[in-house]
Task: inverse folding
């Protein structure tokens, strides 16, 4: 200490003292630490007193802000005359404390002590623009760490910081900081910081403290664009996002986490992901955190170059018409990568964050739990295991690489890729969703009614949807979908093989759906229809077919009218064959309908004096046979004229059957109609008509058999005529149409019956 003035009197001392000290040498620091002594942090000391009354005291000590910037704590006491209402004019000793920032800018990097080589800190440097704070809230200690708060309001003082990200972009924000005095040993500093960052556990309302602590750590960024990771070479901007909020932490991360001055990091963030927003309009800012593999193994250590994880996977909902018609590839995306865009998390990691392979098949299928194939089939059931070596295709995934994969017969993308990029001419952006995956036989699942309809052994699904948004906010969407080498098996009765089913659409044009290499095969009970295949073209859905594309789905089919055939006394006419495949986009099942003629246009057949006709149609879908309907009618007639007497007779019989699964109804009916007449000399005419009908109907669990017979005899003599009709109708109902026991026996009759057997 240097005394410029010192007087000792009976009324007190008068002195002017001043001192200034340099930093301790490393040797001195080591000796004091060995002795367990606190290291001094005093920088300067000024003291003016007169006659035992302090006039001015200034103490400056060394310290650091929690961000690592060197700072000083200045405590200044002045005796000031102040007029008080009750005390008059009194010279109080007033104290003001301030923090002075001595190191405005501090760099961060891989060699500054971070757990993950600085990857957890998106800023390469932080600059504090404040030089001196306003007076601080009392009490202020130069031996303990504290949050820097303003005296006038008691609120935290928010320092203004300018961060420099990995692309030399400047980002400004404000944040409260902790002042930590120098001289604290490591354990004491860590304990004090831990308490400050954990909140006051003894507060009357701990939840209030927690909210305040969160507000200190969660700093709004106002949508500023920040590169949250070092982008790969040649991929500038691939790791940049508009950030709404950054959540800061302090110190070492990982299992042995502890606070350390000078190691600020970002523990979470809320960012905009434009590619996700296009398919989830209400997504807004999404909560993210750094990917474990990125932190522990670098971005190159992740097969897809992932650097961020969404805190909650976002389920993307696609309309089938928007994503390719063939599939609604609803998936839960979770990983944000540098070049592959946003993808589902299909990676299995080890304890050190290394990717050891793909997730188990059940976990991969869970990520596609809402995806639909052909409008209704659970796509996730047909996904297959992903080979570890194929995961690397997601790393360097530019447009040229994607096109090569789509063109290659064996090229596959192990996960859907959702990405957005600037157009080469700078006139807009392109959003792209692309996926190419192999499908396979699903696992058997009891009770799954759709498990047998689709055979995709060796099938490949390709989806490529692009949306170009120009600067005038006009969207132009181009969608392509393709499913190759698959078959539809309807209840083991009909099998439709399709070599290639494609869906294409573009701006201002109607969707184009094509199917090639189609083969229709009937099986089991309907195998006899295969004999008619010679009348069908080789490609029933090729040239001459009709395809109707609507927003609700695709209807494709073929109708073939056979020419009339006449051979001698045999003739066959009005025969038509029809096949129709319906692929809806609204979630309803795929259905197939086959028909031989129709109810309104039955075929006709005649052999000499016998003739008849009929029709047949069948509708099946993934749930099984939905409707079968058919009818056949046959009969003959003959006439005789002997001059004196003439007459004729005709006999017709027919069978009609119908099964309707939707209405839960089955009906089967047959009839026989006989007519005969005899005319003698044109005076007496006798005619007889006999009609017999038998029908079986079942509605739900109730079945009924009905029989009806009618006999009509007509006699005409000259001008007199008389007709007599006899009718008989009977019906028999099965359970539950039969009356119950309680309906047939009255209660008191039952009691009398039981009493007859009593002792």
Result:
């Amino acid at each position: 200490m240097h005394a410029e003035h010192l007087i000792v009197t009976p009324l007190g001392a008068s002195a002017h003292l001043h001192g200034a000290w340099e930093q301790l040498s490393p040797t001195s620091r080591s000796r004091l630490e060995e002795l367990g002594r606190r290291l001094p942090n005093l920088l300067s000391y000024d003291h003016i007193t007169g006659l035992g009354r302090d006039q001015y005291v200034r103490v400056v000590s060394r310290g650091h802000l929690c961000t690592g910037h060197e700072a000083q704590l200045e405590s200044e006491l002045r005796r000031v005359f102040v007029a008080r209402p009750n005390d008059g004019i009194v010279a109080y000793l007033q104290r003001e404390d301030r923090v002075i920032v001595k190191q405005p800018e501090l760099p961060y990097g891989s060699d500054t002590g971070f757990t993950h080589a600085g990857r957890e800190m998106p800023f390469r440097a932080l600059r504090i623009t404040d030089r001196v704070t306003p007076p601080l809230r009392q009490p202020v200690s130069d031996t303990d760490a504290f949050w820097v708060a303003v005296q006038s309001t008691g609120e935290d003082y928010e320092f203004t910081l300018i961060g420099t990200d990995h692309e030399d972009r400047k980002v400004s924000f404000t944040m409260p900081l902790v002042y930590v005095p120098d001289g604290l040993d490591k354990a004491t500093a860590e304990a004090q910081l831990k308490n400050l960052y954990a909140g006051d556990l003894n507060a009357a309302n701990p939840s209030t403290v927690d909210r305040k602590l969160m507000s200190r750590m969660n700093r709004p960024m106002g949508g500023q664009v920040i590169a949250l990771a070092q982008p790969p070479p040649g991929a500038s901007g691939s790791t940049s996002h508009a950030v709404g909020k950054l959540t800061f932490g302090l110190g070492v991360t990982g299992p042995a986490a502890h606070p350390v001055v000078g190691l600020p990091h970002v523990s979470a963030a809320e960012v905009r992901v434009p590619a996700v927003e296009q398919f989830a309009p209400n997504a807004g800012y999404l909560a993210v955190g750094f990917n474990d593999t990125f932190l522990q193994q670098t971005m190159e250590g992740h097969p897809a170059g992932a650097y961020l994880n969404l805190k909650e996977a976002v389920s993307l909902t696609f309309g089938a018409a928007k994503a390719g018609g063939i599939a609604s590839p609803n998936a839960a995306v979770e990983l944000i990568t540098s070049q592959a865009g946003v993808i589902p998390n299909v990676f299995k990691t080890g304890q050190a964050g290394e990717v050891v392979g793909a997730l188990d098949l059940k976990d991969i299928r869970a990520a596609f739990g809402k995806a639909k194939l052909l409008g209704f089939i659970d796509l996730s059931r047909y996904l297959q295991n992903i080979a570890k070596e194929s995961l690397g295709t997601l790393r360097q995934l530019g447009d040229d690489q994607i096109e090569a994969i789509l063109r290659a017969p064996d090229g596959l993308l192990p996960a859907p890729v959702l990405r957005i990029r600037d157009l080469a001419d700078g006139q807009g952006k392109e959003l792209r969703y692309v996926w190419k995956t192999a499908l396979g036989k699903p696992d058997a699942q009891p009770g799954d009614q759709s498990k047998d309809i689709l055979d995709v052994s060796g099938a490949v699904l390709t989806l490529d949807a692009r949306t170009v948004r120009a600067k005038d906010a006009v969207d132009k969407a181009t969608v392509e979908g393709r499913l190759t080498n698959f078959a539809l098996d309807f209840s083991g009765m009909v099998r439709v093989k399709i070599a290639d089913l494609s869906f294409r659409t573009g701006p201002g044009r109607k969707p184009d759906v094509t199917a090639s290499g189609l083969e229709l095969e009937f099986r089991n009970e309907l195998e006899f229809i295969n004999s008619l295949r010679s009348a069908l073209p080789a490609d029933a859905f090729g040239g001459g077919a009709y395809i109707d594309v609507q927003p609700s789905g695709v209807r494709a089919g073929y109708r073939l009218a056979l020419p009339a055939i006449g051979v001698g006394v045999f003739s066959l006419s009005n025969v038509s064959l029809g096949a129709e495949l319906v692929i809806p986009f609204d979630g309803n099942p795929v259905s197939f309908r086959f028909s031989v003629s129709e109810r309104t246009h039955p075929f006709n057949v005649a052999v000499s004096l016998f003739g008849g006709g009929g029709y047949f149609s069948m509708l099946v879908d993934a749930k099984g046979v939905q409707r079968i309907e058919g009818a056949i009618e046959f009969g003959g007639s003959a006439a005789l004229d002997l001059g004196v007497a003439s007459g004729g007779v005709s006999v017709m019989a027919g069978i009609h059957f119908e099964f309707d699964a939707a209405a839960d109804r089955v009906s089967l009916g047959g009839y026989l109609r006989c007519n005969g007449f005899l005319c003698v000399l044109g005076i007496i005419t006798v005619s007889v008509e006999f009609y017999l009908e038998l029908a079986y109907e079942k509605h739900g669990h109730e079945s009924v058999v009905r029989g009806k017979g009618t006999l009509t005899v007509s006699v005409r003599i000259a001008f007199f005529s008389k007709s007599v009709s006899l009718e008989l109708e009977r019906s028999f109902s099965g359970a539950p149409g039969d009356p119950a026991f309680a309906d047939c026996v009255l209660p008191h009759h039952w009691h009398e019956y039981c009493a007859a057997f009593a002792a």
